């Protein structure tokens, strides 16, 4: 994918900034400050993302960073973290109706790249991905992404967004950039919120209720514990369209009075409960202990595609007037971190030692459905199986200020090491959900022919899908940055990592900034990056249902090491590799306003994607030999694309107005 007309887009972006009716406040440049007159938004925030310097701010940084405050999240009116980010950060897109196999997980898109090409951190620690690999034919197909909506909005103090490649600093997945969700740090006070809403047009329903709140508790003399919780109850929206297809067999008088409003809903029923704990306390004068925990339990249920009474996938003795399978998913998400910080940056250096663990479990069921090959004995409820994704990280980070004779300020040196274990597991479902029951079609024109095996709506995970895949990752990094002159700053970073399943990878990054005057500066970075295929992408397999022109086809996703996939051309997955370039300008017309424009180019080789559904005689023969005679199509992941993405992000800020930015 190449974005053309780069110069035209750049000019449009500049004009958008110059003639914006607001010169509004950039989202990243606002933070609340309590005064006797009330809360006043501040223009420039201290940032920690993308740098180890303690004196860096949004408008003084060599890289483009945005900071979204908790107040901005609340005032956005968004019902979850992903929707809020899409409203407040112009380079983030979010489709609330894109369905990841009904898991309730929805991907975000950052700088027009894939959902798994952005690194998500919580309190600076790597977040684990959802267990659901998105196999449906919609945005993010083939990706395994982090579900940020498992974190309650009420638990968030701010969100830092780094719009720059950062693999050398943070490792895999940071091709498009990094999003760091910082949890609330309150030792007193609290808040309760209630939100109620519903679609009012077309009688679509969708009543939604959200209850959230937080409470701060003091720990000792200098510590805090903040407790946050959220409960969301959302009813599905009703599809206002009708099904004009013939429902019954020819000559059936029920056709004249058939219910045509049988389409699936626009969104699912969702019952979601989540909470978060965030705490820190001083052990002594120099040592601080910190930790956080998040947990989310979400159940979602949505209607699948309507099965008409006349279809051979129906057992008319059970559903004489047709049925819509109900796809239910329970997602349980848990993450916890514990760490200790000690030392002084200006003396012997500061050390941060931590361990964090994350796990996402997904259980799926289908109700109001049948396995036609079981005939009248078919159950109507089926357990489909379980997906489990886990991740454990151990990190050691060191930062030291180094006096220099050639720089106006001490240099900041950073070093660290990491060890990570990742695993992905698939557990089979009920046999009735995938097996052939031996009963032929009972009635209709095709009576006596073999009936389709497996439950309608979503085939259960089979014994062939079952298994566990693990990997170990070890790595280290070095960085050096500083203010070399009053006007010039620069930084360099490098990282090397070893993956147990595909070996070594190395990345580096250069950054610089020059301030011509206190009001005008240019900044730029150059880096290379990588994204390792997730463990889920290496091992996921499942049979899915695809509809083409109103006709149902069973297709199967194979892991690349499966003999059938290899017969169709699959090869072992390699990491995605990128080169990232950013150049921008920061203008401060007054002490209370700013204008920024950043241009970027991201070149990616060997992007991982899911093939189209491969069909035809040769494919069916391969599938039959592999033991899937009723499956008509196959797909697998492969390193199939080289892409170039270009864009620009401009913003205008004024501390007295509300935020605005433009992405071209």
What does this protein look like?
There is one protein chain. The chain has 664 residues and is mainly beta. The chain has helices spanning 6-18, 70-75, 81-88, 167-170, 535-539, 563-567, 617-625, and strands spanning 32-35, 38-41, 65-69, 92-94, 108-110, 119-122, 125-126, 156-162, 178-183, 190-199, 205-219, 223-234, 269-282, 287-303, 326-344, 349-367, 381-402, 411-427, 467-483, 488-499, 503-517, 520-531, 542-548, 551-558, 576-587, 593-610, 633-654, 660-663. The chain contains 7 helices and 28 strands. Strand 13 (269-282) and strand 14 form a beta hairpin. The longest helix is centred in the first third of the chain and has 13 residues, at 6-18. Mean pLDDT is 87; it is low at 1-42.
Q: Could you outline the blueprint of secondary structure elements for this entry?
A:
Elements: H1 6-18, E1 32-35, E2 38-41, E3 65-69, H2 70-75, H3 81-88, E4 92-94, E5 108-110, E6 119-122, E7 125-126, E8 156-162, H4 167-170, E9 178-183, E10 190-199, E11 205-219, E12 223-234, E13 269-282, E14 287-303, E15 326-344, E16 349-367, E17 381-402, E18 411-427, E19 467-483, E20 488-499, E21 503-517, E22 520-531, H5 535-539, E23 542-548, E24 551-558, H6 563-567, E25 576-587, E26 593-610, H7 617-625, E27 633-654, E28 660-663
Parallel strand pairs: 6-9, 24-27
Antiparallel strand pairs: 1-2, 3-8, 4-5, 6-7, 8-9, 10-11, 11-12, 12-13, 13-14, 14-15, 15-16, 16-17, 17-18, 18-19, 19-20, 20-21, 21-22, 22-25, 23-24, 25-26, 26-27, 27-28
């Amino acid at each position: 994918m190449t974005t053309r007309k780069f110069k035209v887009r750049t000019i449009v972006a500049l004009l958008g900034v110059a003639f914006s009716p607001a010169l509004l406040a950039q989202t990243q440049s606002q933070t609340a400050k309590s005064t006797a007159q009330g809360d006043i938004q501040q223009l420039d925030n201290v940032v920690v993302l993308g740098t180890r310097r303690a004196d860096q701010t949004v408008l003084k940084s060599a890289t483009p960073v945005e900071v979204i405050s908790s107040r901005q999240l609340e005032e956005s009116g968004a019902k979850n973290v992903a929707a809020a980010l899409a409203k407040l950060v112009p380079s983030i897109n979010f489709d609330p109706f894109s369905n990841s196999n009904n898991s309730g997980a929805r991907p975000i898109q950052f700088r027009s790249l894939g959902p798994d090409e952005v690194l998500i951190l919580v309190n600076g620690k790597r977040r684990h991905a959802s267990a659901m690999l998105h196999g449906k034919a919609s945005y993010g197909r083939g990706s395994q992404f982090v579900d940020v909506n498992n974190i309650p909005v009420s638990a968030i103090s701010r969100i830092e967004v780094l719009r720059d490649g950062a693999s050398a600093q943070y490792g895999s997945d940071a091709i498009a950039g990094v999003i760091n969700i910082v949890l609330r740090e309150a030792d007193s006070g609290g808040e309760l919120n209630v939100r109620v809403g519903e679609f009012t047009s077309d009688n679509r329903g969708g009543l939604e209720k959200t209850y959230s709140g937080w409470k701060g508790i003091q720990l000792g003399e200098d510590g805090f514990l903040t407790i946050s919780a959220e409960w969301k109850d959302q009813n599905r929206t009703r599809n206002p369209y009708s099904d004009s297809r013939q429902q019954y067999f020819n000559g059936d008088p029920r056709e004249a009075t058939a219910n045509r409003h049988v389409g699936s809903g626009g969104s699912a029923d969702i019952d979601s409960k989540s909470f978060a704990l965030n705490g820190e306390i001083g052990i002594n004068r120099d040592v601080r202990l910190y930790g956080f925990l998040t947990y989310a339990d979400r159940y979602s249920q949505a209607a699948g595609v309507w099965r008409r009474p006349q279809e051979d996938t129906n057992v008319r003795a059970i559903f004489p007037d047709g049925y819509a399978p109900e796809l239910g998913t329970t997602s349980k998400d848990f993450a916890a971190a514990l760490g200790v910080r000690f030392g002084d940056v200006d003396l012997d250096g500061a050390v941060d030692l931590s361990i964090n663990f994350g796990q996402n479990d997904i259980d799926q069921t289908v109700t109001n459905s049948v396995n036609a090959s079981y005939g009248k004995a078919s159950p109507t409820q089926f357990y489909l199986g379980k997906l489990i994704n886990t991740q454990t990280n151990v990190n050691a980070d060191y930062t030291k200020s180094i006096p220099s004779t050639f720089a106006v300020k001490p240099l900041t040196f950073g070093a660290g090491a990491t060890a990570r274990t990742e695993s992905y597991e698939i557990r089979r479902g009920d046999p009735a959900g995938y097996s052939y029951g031996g009963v032929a079609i009972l009635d209709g024109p095709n009576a006596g022919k073999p009936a389709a095996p497996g439950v309608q709506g979503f085939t259960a995970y089979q014994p062939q899908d079952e298994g566990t895949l693990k990997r170990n990752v070890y790595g280290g990094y070095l960085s050096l940055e500083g203010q070399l002159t009053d006007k010039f700053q620069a930084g360099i970073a490098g990282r090397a990592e070893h993956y147990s399943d595909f070996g070594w990878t190395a990345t580096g990054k250069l950054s610089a900034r020059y301030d011509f005057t206190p009001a005008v500066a240019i900044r730029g970075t150059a880096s290379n990056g990588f994204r390792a295929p997730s463990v889920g992408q290496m091992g996921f397999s499942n049979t899915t249902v695809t509809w083409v022109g109103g006709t149902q086809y069973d297709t199967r996703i194979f892991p690349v090491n499966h003999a059938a996939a290899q017969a169709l051309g699959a090869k072992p997955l390699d990491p995605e590799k990128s080169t990232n370039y950013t150049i921008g300008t920061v203008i401060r017309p007054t002490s209370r306003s700013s204008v920024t424009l950043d241009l970027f180019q991201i070149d990616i080789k060997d992007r991982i994607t899911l093939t189209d559904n491969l069909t035809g005689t040769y494919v069916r023969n391969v599938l039959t030999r592999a033991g899937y005679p009723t499956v008509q199509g196959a797909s697998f992941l492969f390193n199939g694309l080289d892409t170039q993405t270009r864009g620009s992000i401009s913003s205008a800020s004024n501390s007295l107005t509300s935020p605005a930015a433009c992405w071209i």
